[in-house]
Amino acid sequence: xxxxxxxxxxxxxxxxxxxxxxxxxxxxxxxxxxxxxxxxxxxxxxxxxxxxxxxxxxxxxxxxxxxxxxxxxxxxxxxxxxxxxxxxxxxxxxxxxxxxxxxxxxxxxxxxxxxxxxxxxxxxxxxxxxxxxxxxxxxxxxxxxxxxxxxxxxxxxxxxxxxxxxxxxxxxxxxxxxxxxxxxxxxxxxxxxxxxxxxxxxxxxxxxxxxxxxxxxxxxxxxxxxxxxxxxxxxxxxxxxxxxxxxxxxxxxxxxxxxxxxxxxxxxxxxxxxxxxxxxxxxxxxxxxxxxxxxxxxxxxxxxxxxxxxxxxxxxxxxxxxxxxxxxxxxxxxxxxxxxxxxxxxxxxxxxxxxxxxxxxxxxxxxxxxxxxxxxxxxxxxxxxxxxxxxxxxxxxxxxxxxxxxxxxxxxxxxxxxxxxxxxxxxxxxxxxxxxxxxxxxxxxxxxxxxxxxxxxxxxxxxxxxxxxxxxxxxxxxxxxxxxxxxxxxxxxxxxxxxxxxxxxxxxxxxxxxxxxxxxxxxxxxxxxxxxx
Length: 533
Fold this sequence. Notes:
Layout: E1 7-10, H1 20-24, E2 30-32, E3 45-47, H2 57-61, E4 67-70, H3 76-80, E5 85-86, E6 92-96, E7 99-102, E8 107-109, E9 115-116, H4 120-144, E10 153-156, H5 164-170, E11 176-179, H6 182-187, H7 192-200, E12 206-208, H8 217-229, E13 234-239, H9 241-255, H10 261-264, E14 266-267, E15 277-281, E16 293-297, E17 304-308, E18 316-319, H11 329-349, H12 355-377, H13 382-402, H14 406-418, H15 422-436, H16 439-452, H17 461-478, H18 493-504, H19 516-525
Parallel strand pairs: 10-18, 11-12, 11-13, 13-15, 14-17, 15-18
Antiparallel strand pairs: 1-4, 2-3, 5-6, 6-7, 7-8, 8-9, 16-17
Helix pairs in contact: 8-9, 11-12, 11-13, 11-15, 11-16, 12-13, 14-15, 14-18, 15-17, 16-17, 18-19
């Protein structure tokens, strides 16, 4: 018996209209449908079956797995996987060749009288959840092309921080607020060269050095008070991601005095220009010197959430590798893994990226592959330190547009609930989440494997993706980073799931959309001790 030809089935509930399948079809039998009205951005890919040879290229390259290969038009799978139309009455119903799904009946009914009972009702609701998330992301994708993206102006190289005060003075500023933490200021004395240069330049300043490892809304309010009391006109954010996020939060509250930190968290809720920030990173990981995000923890609830607004991006960044030379190996490791997480998540998300972000992700991953093990073993290697600063900068700029994913959505909950350092949480979770995405992330992970030149058992996408994840795991082991997030308490799982799902959906364009059910399954899979009794 002759094998029936398989043809692509394009699930309209999942298709984002990205045109990747159209560009890769060798026969030219795919196209993006015409918009239904002016400004319609919900167009989908459509197939001309007469020209299709059933090669399956479109299904292989679809970034969100919206295309499957199917034998003929009569498959019930076509109808079950198709999103329903919502009518003005709220009833959801869709007809296809005599088949009809009714939300109220919870079953598929065919013209022959057949009924398909079971979990179809829940699948339909899940399909609508994915439609909402992917639809939101499609709108965001369009918006990304009209937003005024920029990159902070750089002052870089060994000793660059000593040149900062003169640069500030030439810009017309007279009194910056230095936002940092007490360990950097009073114990490690990392600000000594900067403060001496400020004195020589005749530049006065005020300082706020009480920033917590996970900055809080109380830190922000204290900083706002000092800024106003001392008549400051700009800020120097000196340190890792915590002082930078705190400085951004201070700036947002100064610009929006009538709104609390909680009211400013979310997407584009600041909008107005904040005081100019000169960012001086002392780690090579967070990339906060080039991002539009400020992650702040609410002291009362321990809920960690992010402000996201273009106006929060620092205007200037100082990349001085001498400031990172004395970092302890563990901090070097976790901050470097944080940069890797930014690059990998932004690259596997891909939806919001332009060619620039993709290029920056690849550059960042390669720099980290070549240099993070070097500086972990020998922190005094100034050239490798400089390369890692570049990697963090590239990765930070990439995820500023490309977005992070569920590694960060879950990791932020660990910082809020347990005070887990951000880089440590990202380091632990990264390989687990990438493996949990399965085939949905494998193609892009395989590309990163090729970028790094990692050897694989064969040339298949699956083997390359697995080799890349294994490299991350091996690097974690070498740098003595824990395998599992053992800080998680079983009583907190519900809270972690709720916060992570709320942060991740619908904004993060992850390879897969997870519901609370999938988040819970993932958390339990990385906390095996909960099953011990």
